[in-house]
C-alpha cells in the first residue's frame, strides 16, 4: 500500500489547522490517501490530532458532526495517543488503511523512526513498516 498526504509529496507537506465551531482551539489535521497495490483501491482519511487531555472521547463524539462537511468523503478519525512507535485512533475504524495512514503521519510529521509503528484502531492493532521514496510511503501491514 502507498500513502500520500493530500496528493502532495510527503516531504513537502506541512501540518494544517482547522477551526471547529464552538471549540476554543484549532486542531492540527492530516488528510491522507491510502492506495492498495496492485488493484489501486483508495481510502481517504482525515486524521485530527486530539492528544490533549481536553479532548475526551465524549467531546470527540460531539465534534464529529461538526466536522462532517470538512471531512467530506474522507473517513474521520482522531489521533488520541501518540508515543514513539505506538498510536491509538478514535473511533478507530477497523480498516487497515487507517493504521497505514497514521503510521505515515507519525513517520513524516512526528519524526517517528520506529520499525514497526503499531497503531491501535478499535479492538485491533496493526504493525506498520515500510520505507519511503520521498513521494509516497510503501507499507507492509500485519495484525498484532
How does this structure look, described?
- The protein is an alpha+beta fold.
- The chain has one domain: Diaminopimelate Epimerase, Chain A, domain 1 (Roll).
- Helix content is 17%, strand content 40%.
- It contains three helices and ten strands; from the N terminus they run E-E-E-E-H-H-E-E-H-E-E-E-E.
- Strands 1, 2, 3, 4, 5, 6, 7, 8, 9 and 10 form a ten-stranded mixed β-sheet that branches.
- The longest helix has 14 residues, at 96-109.
- It is globular and about 40 Å long.
- Mean pLDDT is 79; it is low at 4-14.
Structural shape: globular
Straight-line distance between termini: 18 Å
Mean pLDDT: 79
* CATH-derived architecture: Roll
Number of strands: 10
Estimated share of beta-strand residues? 35-45%
Count of alpha/pi helices: 3
Helices and strands, in N-to-C order?
Answer: EEEEHHEEHEEEE
Count of domain modules = 1
The low-confidence parts are 4-14
Q: Could you name the CATH homologous superfamily?
A: Diaminopimelate Epimerase, Chain A, domain 1
Helix content, binned percent: 10-25%
What profile does the largest beta sheet have? 10 strands, mixed
- Rg: 14 Å
Helix/strand-derived category reads alpha+beta
Multimerization state: single chain
CATH class: Alpha Beta
CATH topology: Diaminopimelate Epimerase, Chain A, domain 1
Layout of SSEs?
Layout: E1 2-5, E2 16-19, E3 26-35, E4 42-49, H1 57-63, H2 68-71, E5 75-83, E6 86-90, H3 96-109, E7 117-121, E8 124-129, E9 137-138, E10 140-143
Parallel strand pairs: 4-5, 6-7
Antiparallel strand pairs: 1-3, 1-9, 2-3, 3-4, 5-6, 7-8, 8-10
Amino acid at each position: 500500500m502507498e500513502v500520500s498526504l493530500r496528493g502532495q509529496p510527503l516531504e513537502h507537506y506541512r501540518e494544517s489547522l482547522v477551526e471547529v465551531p464552538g471549540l476554543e482551539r484549532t486542531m492540527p489535521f492530516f488528510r491522507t490517501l491510502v492506495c492498495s497495490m496492485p488493484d489501486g483501491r483508495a481510502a481517504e482519511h482525515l486524521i485530527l490530532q486530539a492528544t490533549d487531555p481536553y479532548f475526551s472521547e465524549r467531546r470527540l463524539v460531539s465534534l464529529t458532526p461538526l466536522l462532517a462537511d470538512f471531512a467530506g468523503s474522507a473517513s474521520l478519525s482522531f489521533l488520541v495517543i501518540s508515543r514513539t512507535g505506538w498510536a491509538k485512533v478514535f473511533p478507530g475504524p477497523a480498516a487497515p488503511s487507517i493504521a497505514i495512514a497514521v503510521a505515515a503521519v507519525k513517520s513524516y510529521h512526528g519524526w517517528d523512526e520506529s520499525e514497526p509503528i503499531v497503531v491501535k484502531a478499535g479492538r485491533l492493532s496493526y504493525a506498520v513498516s515500510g520505507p519511503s521514496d520521498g513521494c509516497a510511503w510503501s507499507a507492509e501491514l500485519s495484525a498484532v
